[in-house]
Amino acid sequence: MSETRNANGKATPETARLILEGREYELPVVRGTEGEKAVDISSLRRTTGYITLDKGYENTGSCRSSVTFIDGEKGILRYRGYPIDELAAKSTFTEVAYLLLYGELPTTIQLEEFSTFLNESSLIHEDMLHFFVGFPRGSHPMGILATTVASLSTFYPVPEVMDEKAERQILANLISQVRTIAAISYKKSIGEPIVYPSYKLRYVPNFLTMMFSSPVKESDLDDDIVQAIDLFLILHADHEQNCSTSTVRLTGSSLANVYAVISAGISALWGPRHGGANQEVIRMLEKIRDEHGDGTEYVRRAKDRNAPDRLMGFGHRVYKNFDPRAKILKEACHKLLKKPGMIDPLFDIALRLEDIALHDEYFVSRNLYPNVDFYSGLILRAAGIPYDMFTVLFAIGRTPGWLAHWREMYHGEDFRIMRPRQIYTGSTCRTYVDRSRRR
Ligand code: CMC
Predict the structure, then answer these.
(1) Is the same domain home to 190 and 298?
(2) Which single residue of 187, 224, 344, 422 has CA 20 to 30 Å from 415?
(3) φ and ψ at 425, to 5 degrees?
(4) Is 316 a catalytic residue?
């Protein structure tokens, strides 16, 4: 609970006053390390009989967390206190994964050990390869990923009492094997033999080799692409209590096994309002290209409430100024897409579209700016990642973040099953009508 000092310098708990039906209640005020404030309503129903109603949880803090800080008004994003632009410029995805999970940047030895451990944990059980044959052709890789990740628990059962060693292994399995599963599902979808991970390669080169090499084609990795994918993964690694992370916490709060928990997160991420947007952005840019327009007509449709289109990759629940990840990715596109052989006309369309939207009263008045998904698809496209794998790449990036939140919750003091309430609006009690008398 937060405290204030009275005239005599004495600390008193900071509270908020609530008046309901003429009675006054005092509720504790909680402050975070960055000055965010909350009214703690944990005792509200017990003491007043009331609950709160908060559409889309816009004003609800579901937990205390020390993983990631966002200031949406100022466009700030920090993992464990480190600004995202510094991590993007100086770190690697493996290092960021360690930071998110364990709270500190690793030493050289810790990073080396973690990296080796991820490699040693990257193979999936051989019997799991049968699964990939069973999915119908054209299955969306997110469906395959969610199913296969949930099934990991049948091959690597989670012990009832989890000690540190078992937990460490599960975290490594998940971070490493989502990447293996993703590459296998791609290889199966194009009818090529799978490529196993290699102990010789780091996280991203390993993934790109599993994706793009074959018995008749050695993978020829471009350093700029490796760096761009690493950047993509760093920028997607965590984003505090978003839809999929909240799903992970909610599912995990039932003590479901952690493979099932991450599978639930993957499913939540799939939707086009969340991680699925990166794929939709490219579809939108292609549509504009094919209509030979400059984007003005698409923007008109995106503003029309009666039309299904939205400007994909625009808008964010939290960022009301700019999304710092979009800024970094836009710069990365400028760098990557001017390379010979990588020039992409869709980038010019994206830049024009952004410019139109940022000068349009509809988007300006609603504080709608490009989000992380607006430019990320162009990076993935340059790397040769097929469209329906875009959200899978997001999931690979987000896995350490989901696990950091699961871990924080699992070991936290406040751990309780999550169980929101509701305001019931259905029929009041009525008498059962016999089937023969129903009309
Ligand atoms: N295009 C057109 N109008 C929009 C858009 C958009 N992309 N985003 C929001 N609006 C409008 C919306 O219609 C509403 O208008 P009005 O006030 O007239 O009813 C207003 O702006 C507020 O929107 P909202 O849907 O209430 O805002 P939200 O915080 O509930 O939704 C969002 C946030 C990200 C779901 C939404 O902006 C959106 O659908 N964007 C497009 C999809 C997208 O890019 N998603 C990726 C999000 S970032 C990465 C991630 O989370 O995975």
Answers:
(1) yes
(2) 422
(3) -125, 15
(4) yes
Domain count, the chain: 2
* pLDDT computed for residue 71 by the predictor: 96
Q: Which helix H or strand E contains 5, and what residues bound it? A: strand 3-5
Beta pairing, strands 15-20 & 11-13:
unpaired
12 and 97 in a single domain? The answer is no
What separation in Å is there between the alpha carbon of 381 and the centre of ligand 1?
Answer: 24
Question: Which CATH number fits the domain that encloses residue 201?
Answer: 1.10.580.10
- Answer yes or no: is 429 within a domain: no
Residue 34 belongs to a domain with what CATH number?
2.20.28
Prediction pTM value = 0.94
Q: How far is the CA of 57 from the centre of ligand 1 (A)?
A: 15
| Residue that has been written with the tokens 């309503």 in this structure | 41
- Tell me the residue type at 183: A
CA dihedral 361, 364, 368, 374 (to 10 degrees): 80
Q: Determine which residue's CA is closest to atom 2 belonging to ligand 1.
A: 310
Are 40 and 94 contained in the same domain? no
What pLDDT score was predicted for residue 189?
A: 87
Q: Which of 236, 316, 323, 405 is catalytic?
A: 316
Tracing tokens 């206190």 back to the chain, one arrives at: 81
Q: Which atom of ligand 1 is nearest to the CA of 302?
A: 2
Residues touching ligand 1 (Cβ under 6 Å) are 56, 242, 273-275, 277, 302, 310-317, 366, 368, 371-373
Per-residue pLDDT, 5 = 65
